[in-house]
Amino acid sequence: MFSTEFLDIPSLHSAAGTITLPGSKSISNRVLLLSALCQGTTVVHDLLDSDDTRVMLAALRQLGCGVQENGTTVTITGLGGKLQNAQPIEFFMGNAGTAMRPLTAALAVLGGDFTLKGVARMHERPIGDLVDALRLLGCRIDYLGNDGFPPLRVGKPSLTLDLPIQVRGDVSSQFLTALLMALPLAAQQQDIVIEVVGELISKPYIDITLNLLQRFGIQVQRDGWQRFTIPAGSSYHSPKTIHVEADASSASYFIALGAIAADGAQPVRIQGVGADSIQGDIRFMDAAAQMGAQITSGPNWLEVRRGAWPLKGIELDCNHIPDAAMTLAVMALYADSPTTLRNIASWRVKETDRIHAMATECRKLGAQVEEGEDWLRVHPLPKNQWHPASIHTYDDHRVAMCFSLAACNAAQMPVRIEDPKCVAKTFPDYFEALFSVTQADKQNIPIICIDGPTASGKGTLASRVAQALGYHYLDSGALYRITALAALKAGLLLDTAHEVAIADLARTLPARFEGESVWLGAQDVSDAIRTEEAGMNASKVSVLPAVRTALVALQHSFQRLPGLLADGRDMGTVIFPHAPLKVFLTASAAQRAERRHKQLISKGISTTLDSLRADLEARDARDSNRSVAPLKPAQDAFQLDNSQLSIEASVDQVLAWWKAKQPF
């Protein structure tokens, strides 16, 4: 998962390949709570691992549920409809509406001494209509801040079930979902009726709730969308095992990606959800097809290609796909006429005011946008009107994922996504998935080269800058050491007799760099390649011309989305001469010798400062005068003397140089 301050997405020209979606947030949190309310054990497969589900799992543990996690399989030992712990409990619910609303209702019916809090935005999200309905039932709930909003204090109820319980349906369907999940706990002796006041929005999410309630033994009787009856004698029964469908809302980004960028022979294939999904957001595929997407579906999969181009502007009532409809706002930028999204008032009370957010960020890209209380109209962007934009994400996962699609523009403008880690709410690996099925022209994939003499600290600096930007990292010097190690493991001698075989091995070397760790396939070889013997072996293979040629090609292959940080003595002069930023890092021989001395002493290796300094000066002279790729700064390199700089200051300087070159 990207945990960087921002993520720059280069211009993307096409998309093809297969992605597997994570589990549905809506289904995951419903299933977790329903499993907790049952007697016995429920094994939940394919659970979404995200911020919201972690919030729910933490709450269930606080309540005394047994929770065993094994990857995406979680085993819940339920409470049997009764709380075991009489002590006061304070719950932190983050910004997880799918956890806050139903858990509040369940706790209010069960009774106890509970406090439910969240992040600042959660304390701005309305819950008053749910609280009003629960109070009419006899539940005891107090506001600890502003009336109508969390945080809340829940006490012991005095339930009265004779009259229908009324709840508004035009703010959030989660209020009705919360009641439907909580009230079977109180329906032992008589029917419980819920009446919806006003138009019920987001009806497909209620369908999900009713479907799952049925799986757990609760047969709710529905009279249209206004009246729901929970029969007397209802009680939860575990299905023993349940699988979570992949998230149809998350599918919307890749359906849109296929419609915009899959214009070749290969489609974007989406695994984990099909047209027969129980999730209402799967109907996003119908809206995308209206705009021109070519979509085929099978059991648990979708394939999407570009059909009409440009896409077609549409006008759509989005009540049935409130979350997924956000993606249409970005698709509208690629259309032939304006797109109007109506009946989206619920956007204003989500993780942020999404109508305002989508309008504001589309305007940054250059688009003309109109907005009303419950509608949004986005005008298409001609090629010559696209602006590079830094997208503010409002701590809203869907804003971040939607606007990543703006990088597919024909103007070849990059897009910056601020706070990319916010996607962890529902799709922690979203950007990795996006980059796995998108392609960019090589010249658009950014490269930063850091060169410099031995012991200048370029490896540490390069890996830190790579982490700060979310870029791939290449330690070219380590590649020669890894090649020698792999060759010896393969039984090859490091000489001209085995030059061709070593070169063949080097071309497909499964090397990767993660932070300051070095991997050869599944083996961490960080320590193995940093010995004196490994250095001598690297020198032996580096003089073999066929091996050098093979490793040049391998180094070029590291230039992948979203970008590359390349560290090595000839990165900016030989391997990536067209890199937009080159840094030549140096320090005095005395300073470098002192650093190396501390490093060796910490490893128990005896040496002297004078001998180390003499060795470094001799190596500098050899490196500067060698016939192949002599060590020297590239003509357009920034020179950075870090003799007196901390690593943090050096990182900040390189990032400042890089940001100054960006168009945002």
SSE topology sketch:
Elements: E1 6-9, E2 14-15, E3 17-20, H1 25-37, E4 41-45, H2 51-63, E5 66-70, E6 73-77, E7 89-92, H3 97-110, E8 114-117, H4 128-137, E9 141-143, E10 152-154, E11 165-168, H5 173-182, E12 192-197, H6 203-215, E13 221-223, E14 227-230, E15 241-243, H7 248-261, E16 268-271, H8 284-291, E17 294-298, E18 301-305, E19 315-317, H9 325-331, E20 339-342, H10 354-364, E21 369-371, E22 375-378, E23 389-391, H11 397-404, E24 415-418, H12 430-436, E25 438-439, E26 447-451, H13 458-469, E27 472-475, H14 476-489, H15 499-507, E28 511-514, E29 517-520, E30 523-524, H16 532-542, H17 545-556, E31 564-567, H18 571-575, E32 581-586, H19 589-602, H20 609-625, E33 638-641, H21 647-660
Helix pairs in contact: 1-2, 1-3, 1-6, 2-3, 3-5, 5-6, 7-8, 7-9, 9-11, 13-21, 14-16, 15-17, 19-20
Instruction: Tell the overall outline.
Output: elongated
Spatial order of the strands forming the largest sheet: 27-31-26-32-33
The overall pLDDT average reads: 93
CATH superfamily of the largest domain: Enolpyruvate transferase domain
Report the portion of residues in β strands.
Answer: 15-25%
CATH architecture annotation of the largest domain = Alpha-beta prism
Largest sheet: 5 strands, parallel
